[in-house]
Amino acid sequence: MTAAGVAMGFALFLILLATTFILGFIVYRALALGETVDPYAGRSGTTASIVADASDNPGGAGSGGSSSAPTATAIRAPAASASSVLKATTSSNFRPPNLLDDDLTTAWIEGEEGPGSGEWARFDFFQPVVLDRLEIANGYQKDDDRFFSHARVKSLKVEYSNGATQLVELLDSKDLQSVTTARRATEWIKLTIVSVYPDYEWEDAALSEVRVYALPDEQ
Questions:
Q1: pTM
Q2: Buried b (16+ CB within 10 A) or exposed e, 158-181
Protein backbone atom coordinates (compact mmCIF):
# COMPACT_ATOMS: atom_id res chain seq x y z
CA MET A 1 0.00 0.00 0.00
CA THR A 2 1.31 3.43 -0.91
CA ALA A 3 1.84 6.25 1.56
CA ALA A 4 -1.04 8.11 -0.07
CA GLY A 5 -3.34 5.14 0.51
CA VAL A 6 -2.32 4.86 4.13
CA ALA A 7 -2.93 8.58 4.64
CA MET A 8 -6.36 8.37 3.02
CA GLY A 9 -7.32 5.38 5.14
CA PHE A 10 -6.19 7.18 8.28
CA ALA A 11 -8.19 10.27 7.28
CA LEU A 12 -11.32 8.18 6.75
CA PHE A 13 -10.79 6.56 10.16
CA LEU A 14 -10.56 9.98 11.78
CA ILE A 15 -13.77 11.11 10.02
CA LEU A 16 -15.60 7.99 11.21
CA LEU A 17 -14.31 8.48 14.74
CA ALA A 18 -15.40 12.13 14.76
CA THR A 19 -18.85 11.25 13.42
CA THR A 20 -19.33 8.59 16.11
CA PHE A 21 -18.27 11.06 18.79
CA ILE A 22 -20.68 13.73 17.55
CA LEU A 23 -23.62 11.32 17.42
CA GLY A 24 -22.79 10.05 20.89
CA PHE A 25 -22.62 13.61 22.21
CA ILE A 26 -26.02 14.43 20.70
CA VAL A 27 -27.61 11.41 22.39
CA TYR A 28 -25.92 12.28 25.68
CA ARG A 29 -27.19 15.86 25.52
CA ALA A 30 -30.71 14.69 24.78
CA LEU A 31 -30.66 12.41 27.81
CA ALA A 32 -29.08 15.10 29.97
CA LEU A 33 -31.87 17.49 29.04
CA GLY A 34 -34.46 14.90 30.01
CA GLU A 35 -35.82 14.41 26.51
CA THR A 36 -37.22 10.88 26.37
CA VAL A 37 -36.90 8.94 23.14
CA ASP A 38 -40.28 7.83 21.82
CA PRO A 39 -39.93 4.41 20.09
CA TYR A 40 -43.39 4.98 18.59
CA ALA A 41 -42.44 8.30 16.97
CA GLY A 42 -44.02 8.59 13.56
CA ARG A 43 -46.71 6.00 14.25
CA SER A 44 -50.35 7.03 14.20
CA GLY A 45 -52.23 6.68 17.46
CA THR A 46 -55.23 7.85 19.44
CA THR A 47 -55.09 11.46 20.54
CA ALA A 48 -56.83 12.28 23.81
CA SER A 49 -59.52 14.95 23.83
CA ILE A 50 -60.53 17.28 26.64
CA VAL A 51 -63.64 16.14 28.51
CA ALA A 52 -66.20 18.92 28.05
CA ASP A 53 -67.94 18.08 31.34
CA ALA A 54 -65.46 16.67 33.82
CA SER A 55 -68.19 15.54 36.22
CA ASP A 56 -68.72 11.80 36.51
CA ASN A 57 -71.55 11.64 33.97
CA PRO A 58 -71.31 8.52 31.78
CA GLY A 59 -74.06 9.63 29.40
CA GLY A 60 -73.08 13.29 29.23
CA ALA A 61 -70.57 15.40 27.36
CA GLY A 62 -67.16 13.94 26.74
CA SER A 63 -68.45 10.38 26.49
CA GLY A 64 -66.44 9.83 23.32
CA GLY A 65 -69.37 8.17 21.52
CA SER A 66 -72.42 9.16 19.50
CA SER A 67 -75.78 9.86 21.17
CA SER A 68 -77.24 6.70 19.58
CA ALA A 69 -74.55 4.45 21.06
CA PRO A 70 -75.24 2.36 24.19
CA THR A 71 -74.57 4.28 27.39
CA ALA A 72 -71.30 3.39 29.08
CA THR A 73 -71.09 3.22 32.86
CA ALA A 74 -68.18 3.88 35.17
CA ILE A 75 -66.58 0.77 36.67
CA ARG A 76 -63.83 0.32 39.22
CA ALA A 77 -61.15 -2.30 38.71
CA PRO A 78 -60.87 -4.59 41.77
CA ALA A 79 -57.07 -4.57 41.58
CA ALA A 80 -54.41 -2.08 40.54
CA SER A 81 -50.66 -2.75 40.33
CA ALA A 82 -47.60 -0.99 38.95
CA SER A 83 -44.03 -1.67 37.88
CA SER A 84 -42.65 0.78 40.44
CA VAL A 85 -43.82 3.37 42.97
CA LEU A 86 -42.12 6.48 44.29
CA LYS A 87 -41.23 6.21 47.99
CA ALA A 88 -43.98 7.59 50.20
CA THR A 89 -43.55 10.74 52.26
CA THR A 90 -44.85 11.31 55.78
CA SER A 91 -48.07 12.78 54.32
CA SER A 92 -48.56 11.10 50.94
CA ASN A 93 -48.22 7.78 49.16
CA PHE A 94 -48.09 7.26 45.39
CA ARG A 95 -49.56 3.77 44.97
CA PRO A 96 -51.49 2.69 41.84
CA PRO A 97 -54.89 2.52 43.65
CA ASN A 98 -54.67 6.34 43.78
CA LEU A 99 -55.59 6.26 40.09
CA LEU A 100 -59.03 4.88 40.96
CA ASP A 101 -60.02 6.95 44.01
CA ASP A 102 -61.80 9.87 42.26
CA ASP A 103 -59.36 12.24 43.94
CA LEU A 104 -57.23 14.40 41.66
CA THR A 105 -54.95 15.44 44.53
CA THR A 106 -53.56 11.88 44.78
CA ALA A 107 -51.47 10.18 42.10
CA TRP A 108 -49.54 7.13 40.99
CA ILE A 109 -45.93 8.21 40.58
CA GLU A 110 -43.39 5.75 39.22
CA GLY A 111 -40.19 5.30 41.19
CA GLU A 112 -37.49 4.15 38.77
CA GLU A 113 -34.44 6.14 37.68
CA GLY A 114 -35.08 8.35 34.67
CA PRO A 115 -38.30 9.99 33.46
CA GLY A 116 -40.48 6.88 33.51
CA SER A 117 -40.21 5.36 30.05
CA GLY A 118 -41.30 1.71 30.27
CA GLU A 119 -42.98 2.02 33.67
CA TRP A 120 -46.58 0.83 33.83
CA ALA A 121 -49.80 0.63 35.80
CA ARG A 122 -52.23 -2.26 35.34
CA PHE A 123 -55.91 -2.70 36.21
CA ASP A 124 -57.42 -6.19 36.58
CA PHE A 125 -61.17 -6.74 36.20
CA PHE A 126 -61.09 -10.56 36.73
CA GLN A 127 -63.87 -10.98 34.17
CA PRO A 128 -64.33 -9.88 30.55
CA VAL A 129 -65.51 -6.28 30.11
CA VAL A 130 -65.94 -4.26 26.93
CA LEU A 131 -64.46 -0.85 27.53
CA ASP A 132 -65.85 2.29 25.93
CA ARG A 133 -63.30 4.86 27.03
CA LEU A 134 -60.80 5.98 29.63
CA GLU A 135 -60.74 9.42 31.19
CA ILE A 136 -57.23 10.30 32.32
CA ALA A 137 -55.90 13.09 34.52
CA ASN A 138 -52.28 13.62 33.50
CA GLY A 139 -49.46 14.54 35.88
CA TYR A 140 -49.54 15.07 39.64
CA GLN A 141 -52.47 17.42 40.11
CA LYS A 142 -52.27 18.13 43.83
CA ASP A 143 -51.36 21.70 42.94
CA ASP A 144 -49.85 23.66 40.04
CA ASP A 145 -46.33 23.47 41.43
CA ARG A 146 -46.38 19.68 41.63
CA PHE A 147 -48.04 19.39 38.22
CA PHE A 148 -45.35 21.35 36.41
CA SER A 149 -42.46 20.01 38.53
CA HIS A 150 -43.16 16.31 37.89
CA ALA A 151 -42.87 14.68 34.47
CA ARG A 152 -46.21 14.50 32.62
CA VAL A 153 -46.97 11.65 30.25
CA LYS A 154 -46.89 12.42 26.54
CA SER A 155 -47.22 8.98 24.91
CA LEU A 156 -48.92 6.04 26.58
CA LYS A 157 -49.24 2.45 25.34
CA VAL A 158 -52.49 0.74 26.31
CA GLU A 159 -52.43 -3.07 26.25
CA TYR A 160 -55.44 -5.36 26.56
CA SER A 161 -55.63 -9.01 27.66
CA ASN A 162 -57.01 -9.91 24.22
CA GLY A 163 -53.68 -8.94 22.64
CA ALA A 164 -54.73 -5.55 21.27
CA THR A 165 -52.44 -2.56 21.80
CA GLN A 166 -53.09 1.14 21.37
CA LEU A 167 -50.80 4.16 21.33
CA VAL A 168 -52.30 7.18 23.05
CA GLU A 169 -51.07 10.77 22.87
CA LEU A 170 -51.97 12.72 26.01
CA LEU A 171 -52.13 16.50 26.24
CA ASP A 172 -49.90 18.48 28.60
CA SER A 173 -52.94 19.73 30.49
CA LYS A 174 -54.65 19.44 33.87
CA ASP A 175 -58.00 18.93 32.13
CA LEU A 176 -59.54 15.48 32.25
CA GLN A 177 -58.81 13.76 28.92
CA SER A 178 -60.98 11.19 27.15
CA VAL A 179 -59.51 8.27 25.20
CA THR A 180 -61.68 5.95 23.11
CA THR A 181 -60.56 2.38 23.79
CA ALA A 182 -60.51 -0.78 21.68
CA ARG A 183 -64.07 -2.08 22.10
CA ARG A 184 -63.31 -5.75 22.58
CA ALA A 185 -63.67 -7.90 25.68
CA THR A 186 -60.67 -7.69 27.99
CA GLU A 187 -59.92 -8.88 31.53
CA TRP A 188 -57.25 -6.29 32.20
CA ILE A 189 -55.58 -3.20 30.77
CA LYS A 190 -51.98 -2.09 31.16
CA LEU A 191 -50.86 1.52 30.69
CA THR A 192 -47.15 1.84 29.86
CA ILE A 193 -45.36 5.19 29.72
CA VAL A 194 -43.65 5.61 26.36
CA SER A 195 -42.48 9.22 26.63
CA VAL A 196 -42.98 12.33 28.75
CA TYR A 197 -43.04 16.06 28.13
CA PRO A 198 -39.49 17.43 28.54
CA ASP A 199 -40.08 20.50 30.73
CA TYR A 200 -39.99 19.15 34.28
CA GLU A 201 -37.90 19.50 37.41
CA TRP A 202 -38.33 16.02 38.89
CA GLU A 203 -38.03 12.94 36.70
CA ASP A 204 -40.79 11.00 38.46
CA ALA A 205 -43.65 10.65 35.94
CA ALA A 206 -47.17 10.86 37.32
CA LEU A 207 -50.81 10.19 36.52
CA SER A 208 -53.51 11.39 38.92
CA GLU A 209 -56.62 9.53 37.79
CA VAL A 210 -57.83 6.88 35.33
CA ARG A 211 -61.61 6.54 35.09
CA VAL A 212 -62.80 3.43 33.30
CA TYR A 213 -66.11 3.25 31.40
CA ALA A 214 -67.55 -0.02 30.11
CA LEU A 215 -70.40 -0.91 27.74
CA PRO A 216 -73.33 -3.16 28.75
CA ASP A 217 -72.61 -6.90 28.82
CA GLU A 218 -74.59 -7.61 25.67
CA GLN A 219 -72.23 -5.45 23.64
A1: 0.74
A2: bbbeeeeebbbbbbeebebbbbbb
